[in-house]
């Protein structure tokens, strides 16, 4: 063959190869190649006119799992200065309001959906204790420490997520909320303790009672007209005496003793005191004056009693190693507790075990600040160690 | 000494007394008396009424006991009966009817008026803010004592006689002084008593109580700028997590005057005085220095002039 034939064949082959390469380059739609096999180098300015910038998804609201059919639940991981289950109106869902300790920010947890929302971003530095009004509109706050302590009443502006604060001039020693959205509080004078009621809507206060000693512990009732109980602060080394205050009248109750502390309503008083080296608890029927020995050594400050004639009393109790040192040792924070919840029968003679948080959640709790809802279905409380908020579902629909 | 005082308390607190102020004796001869124990019963308290009749004429008498006019069953011819005092602000009449062998009838009676007499002790000593309990007295500290009788709103129309270890406070009985202040005497315990009487001299009640006297002590607590003092004390050892730790010394039952103006309030690290103090003498910001992995942190507070109270505490800090 001539040399020219070889050259022509070679040129044709080269052209065919070039044609194949161009075809593959521009028209190939090979199904075997997955674009995602290639690394996304995040080049900008695509020339693809169909390209759409992906929309950033909104940050999901924190949700507390309140739907779970669990008896015991932890509601917050933040330390809590105060809390209350409220319902602003019958058309609004039930919710829990709480104030974060230290910052004073207020959050609500919707008890239907579990959604948590910050409803006040107003900072109250060093917020230590807070009490909400029953409708969740007002809050009384103690902030600061020692001589720097301040007391304010705030109105929650949900729309603006702020708190309108008004400072109270008095140095308050204890305070509580009422069912009709007022606040009960006490102040000390030179030789007495005065109990007052404060109306945040009108910004007026009124004296309810005076007791002639300063070192008073007060167990406030749920309303101005309920029974309030006052006693000299408790210690194992001095005697205390229980006084009931009802409609401004101070009455001595048949309850006293060393290491005595108490709580109660209009019909019953639950109290504990030192007897020899023992620490014993009693239930007193105020009308019949019948006293029953409660089968627990129980610190009353770790209990809550509902307001009814036959009340529900729920207590947090630990098998204390040295009950002969109670309650002073608990006041000093010197004992560790792994509380269980118990319910004391209305006559005080029996106690029913409710739950062991240690077995249920794996955590040892030092339960304080117990609150029972008006329908008695839930008991809220804080864990003293980290100040987190928890609740115990006492009644579950369809289970109890 | 404590046992001695307890014995004194038992002796005087429960001793039987011849009923006088509360007995409305009705035409009885001397020697015929009813004794009531305790002399000033509390509402609902068990009371023993004893017949003391040592006359020969009464020998062989038939005795019938009445409680507010009702015969007390199964007490016929008993020398004493045990009854329950009534409620507050009520009076209960106890009668012993003597029918002598000669046919003479005599009635002895006494009236029980239950009374609460409370003594509230408020020591002017200091406890931490988070502590729910009451401050206790210490030697040299001031104590305020308040007497509250029954449910009386006004206590100022009565006459009070206060005594500490049998020493009368304020020189004698004082009208309207249901509150007194005094300095705690030396010793582990004292006896405080008060007698309350009507202005006409009728004694309404009396009470005596043991008054403890404790030594102040100090606990250490971690402090957070946001959350304040952590209520749980540091027991023996603090293991530091960060570079610094703010620690507060919290004295218990220390005289308020000493707490507010101590002659000595000093922190020590490994027995050397620390200069790392701010405005609050009870607080220190601890920072590890040197190569060691632990240090001894101590605090000492004391009054050296007036009350002479003080306390000291040490812990080990590991970092």
Could you explain how this protein is built, in words?
The complex is a heterodimer of chains A (400) and B (319). With 400 residues, chain A is mainly beta. Chain A contains three helices and 28 strands. Chain A has helices spanning 3-27, 328-331, 357-361, and strands spanning 72-74, 80-86, 95-100, 106-110, 116-120, 127-132, 138-143, 150-157, 162-168, 172-177, 183-188, 193-199, 204-211, 216-219, 228-232, 239-246, 249-258, 261-264, 268-275, 278-285, 291-294, 303-305, 313-317, 340-344, 351-355, 367-372, 378-383, 389-393. In chain A, a hairpin with a 2-residue loop joins strand 16 and strand 17 (249-258). The relative contact order of chain A is 0.09. With 319 residues, chain B is mostly beta strands. Chain B is 6% helix and 47% strand. The longest helix of chain B has 13 residues, at 2-14. The relative contact order of chain B is 0.12. Chain B folds into three domains: 2-112, Immunoglobulin-like, CATH 2.60.40; 117-212, Immunoglobulins (Immunoglobulin-like), CATH 2.60.40.10; 217-318, Immunoglobulin-like (Sandwich), CATH 2.60.40. Chain B is elongated. The two termini of chain B are 47 Å apart. In chain B, strands 12, 13, 14, 16 and 17 form a five-stranded antiparallel sheet that branches. In chain B, strands 20-27-26-23-24 form a five-stranded mixed sheet, with no helix packed on it. In chain B, strands 1-2-3-6 form a four-stranded antiparallel sheet, with no helix packed on it. Chain A binds chain B through residues 79, 101-103, 125-126, 128, 145-146, 191, 212-215, 217, 232-235, 237-239, 241, 250-252, 254, 256, 289, 301, 327-328, 331-334, 384-385, 387, and chain B through 42-44, 87-88, 116, 118-122, 129-136, 144, 146, 148, 150-151, 153, 155, 178-179, 209, 212, 214, 219, 224, 226-229, 231-233, 252.
